[in-house]
Amino acid sequence: MDRNATQYLIVGGSAAGMAAAHTIRSHDPMAPVTVLTDETDKPYFRPMIPFVVSGKKKSQDMAMEGCGPYVGKDIFVKTDSRVVSVDTDSHRVFLENNQVFNYGKILFATGSRPFIPPDIKGTESNGVFALRTLAHARKMNARAAQTQHAVLLGGGLLNLKAAFALLERGIKVTLVVYSPQVLSQLMDAEDAVLIRNALDDAGLEIRTGTAAVEIESDNSGVRGIVLDDHTKISCQMVCIGKGVRPNVEFLENSKIKLEKGIVADIHTACSQSDTFAAGDVAVTHDPVSGKPVMTALWTNAVEMGRCAGLNMAGLPTAYAGTFGILNATQIANMPFVSMGLVHTKDLDCEIFRSGGQGSFRKMVFSSDGRHLIGMVLIGDISNAGLYRHVIQGKKLVEKFKHHIIGHNLHWGHFIK
After folding, report:
1. Pick from 319, 317, 302, 337: which is nearest to 111 by CA?
2. pLDDT tens column, 62-86
């Protein structure tokens, strides 16, 4: 094989791509494994990039290579390599720099990119960001040095983490959310009271039920923002967190089946031979509803990437699927987990809510009460792994349901 030929080609160098590459390497120690990434940085831990914005970490602290399973041994990573098209008949990919790679098997793990609403004027201004990559984080860090007030658009998780990174630098931060609450995709409004209180206590100013229509700027960059209620907010930075779009445009005319993202079967295979997909860009299935789903969660991407790596290495492995909603993190020193079916308005189901000072629990059971199908834990997130085991495995809960409700479930309850 020449330099641009490889048995295993991974397009995308983040969670799913690197998990697949290392899984392949551990099961096939000799065959060439090549990773192409369009970023100029080597693979890094994306969830940590808010620390670059806050100044607590440097870019080199984010590197995957040498950390945990990501040894990087005998895996060729080629940065600044954007794939522009794929010929699945001849097993070739074409790069923006006119290089061509031949492959034996290929994984598409190209992730997603921020969605910039076209109806907001001025999004091209200096000082407007959409935090997604390490390069974005470095630019935000630099801009923060001349920022007294930042406005963040969108109440999603990454935007909230960016908000706290800026607060830690002593910058005033206003969060503008069109929906009635923050994290609306992860929990119902009545379940988010503790989160909202923690955000208020942390000093984050939140405006709900409104949206930006224009970003004003001058030669120095962003000078302010105009909301749809004609309110103007003076600021020097704007960060947009309005969701993401899968990176699939390069697959046009490739014969790969697309339905917004790349359709992957239970073995992570795509519609053409020797092609696989994993991570944010893949359309997989929700184990509870059985419906097609795409998620942008790091842990899901790692799990699916490992599964794809096993299948590419010739070890048939079924992917268990991923929840449409699954998140576990901490905001304003308040840990929380949201999993499965959590939006229960007009849903035919059993709901048990409980809580005390600094904690809240919501357990959602099927209408017949025999299966746990969703949960929200705030404050005390112990046993979250157990509950995930029950939900994902579609376990009958009749024998230990009262332990779930009483929050004293343990692994011994699964011993037959």
Report:
1. 302
2. 998 877 777 767 899 999 999 999 9
Model confidence at 90, pLDDT cuts 50, 70, 90, reads very high
Nearest to 36 by CA among 113, 99, 130, 112: 99
Tens digits of residue pLDDT in 162-184 = 999 999 999 999 999 998 877 78
Q: How far apart are CA 338 and CA 335, in angstroms?
A: 10
> Residues 6 or more apart from 328 whose CB is under 8 A from it?
299, 335, 336, 337, 338, 339, 381, 384
Q: How far apart are CA 392 and CA 361, in angstroms?
A: 19
C-alpha distances (whole Å) from 55 to each of 49, 227, 276, 280 are: 10, 30, 37, 27
Distance CA 259, CA 124 (A): 29
Contact residues for 209 (Cβ-Cβ < 8 A; gap 6+) = 177, 178, 179, 180
Its pTM stands at: 0.84
Of 144, 174, 177, 120, give the one whose Cα is nearest residue 50.
144
Beta bridge partners of 9: 34, 106
Tell me how far apart the alpha carbons of residues 195 and 208 are, in angstroms, rounded to a whole number: 15
Contacts of 132 (CB under 8 A, 6+ apart): 113, 114, 158, 244
